[in-house]
Amino acid sequence: MRIGELARRTGVTERALRYYEEQNLLKPARLPSGYRDYAPSDAEAVRHIRSLLAAGLPSHLIAELLPCMVDTGDGLMPGCRSMLEPLEAERDRLTAAIEELTAARELLTALIDRTPEDDSEYDAWVAAHAVA
Amino acid sequence: MRIGELARRTGVTERALRYYEEQNLLKPARLPSGYRDYAPSDAEAVRHIRSLLAAGLPSHLIAELLPCMVDTGDGLMPGCRSMLEPLEAERDRLTAAIEELTAARELLTALIDRTPEDDSEYDAWVAAHAVA
DNA sequence: CTAAACCTTGACGTCGACGTGAGGGTCAAG
DNA sequence: CTTGACCCTCACGTCGACGTCAAGGTTTAG
C-alpha cells in the first residue's frame, strides 16, 4: 500500500510516516515510480511506534527494538539481549513517569471534587471566620 | 530566601526559577539590591509547579491555577470556578496519557520478562522447527 | 488529452522548558 | 582593597517530532 492509505489506516500523517523512515523505524519498499510501498504489517508496526514514542522512548532506541520484535511477537530475538539493559531503564523511567502523572491527576481531582457547586459554602466559611 | 537557596531546597536550577517568574508562576519580592526574595511557601509552590509541568499542563494554565490554591489547600478559591472546565479537560487528558504509558510499559515488560537468559531456548526452538 | 489526486525530495518553521554564555552589579570575608 | 561567591538582565542555542510550504513527477478518471 502507498503512503496515503497507511496514513488513513493508522491515523498518522504522511509527514510522520516519512519521518519514521528517515529515523529508520520503517523501511518501505519502493515502486518503480519512486513511491513508497508499505507492507500490511507496517500498520501494526506504526501502532507500536506511536505507543513507544508517546512513552518518550528515543527513536533510535525504537529503531533498534523493532527488528527484535518481528516474528516472535513476544520475547526478544536472539542477538538482541544487549537491549535488555536500556529496555529495563526505560521501563523504570516509565514507572516513575506514571507515578508523577498519577500524583498530578490526584492533585487536580482533589481540587475539582472539593470545589463547591457555588460560592455558598465559601461565603459561609468567610462569615464564620470574619474578624468581627 | 534568595534564588540559590530555593534552588538547593527544591532541586531545580536557578534558570528554571527565573523562567517560572517570567511565566508568572512565581512572583518573588525584590531586595533593594534587585535580588529575588522568595517566601518559604514558594518551595511548596515549586513542587506543585514541577508536578503539573511534568504532567504536561501549559504554564499559563498553571499560572491561573496557583492563585486559586493558596490558603485553602484543597478546593478552588471563589471566583475560580471558571477553571473547572479546563481542569477537567486536563484530568481527562492525564487519564488517557497514563493509559498510554501503561500500555507501553506492558509492552516493554512483556518483552523483558519473556526473553530467556541465554539463547538456549531459542536454539532449541530453531532446532525443533528446522526445515530438516 | 487534461485535470485532479497522489506522490516525491528538500528545507525552513514551530513549540516549550529550559541550557549556556556574555557582561556586569552586590556582598561578606580576610 | 581584593577576591570569591552570589546575583542580575539580555539573548541566542537546543532538542524532538513533526507542520508547512515549494517545486516538481506519477497515476487515474473522464
TrEMBL record, chains A, B:
Keywords: Coiled coil, DNA-binding
Keyword Iron: no
InterPro entries for this protein: DNA-bd_dom_put_sf, MerR-type_HTH_dom, MerR_fam
PROSITE patterns registered for this protein in UniProt: HTH_MERR_1 (PS00552), HTH_MERR_2 (PS50937)
Keyword Coiled coil appears in the UniProt entry: yes
Coiled coil segments of this chain: 84-111
Pfam families (UniProt xref): MerR_1
A single MF term (Gene Ontology): DNA binding
Domain (HTH merR-type) ranges: 1-68
Name of the featured protein: MerR family transcriptional regulator
Organism, scientific name: Jiangella rhizosphaerae
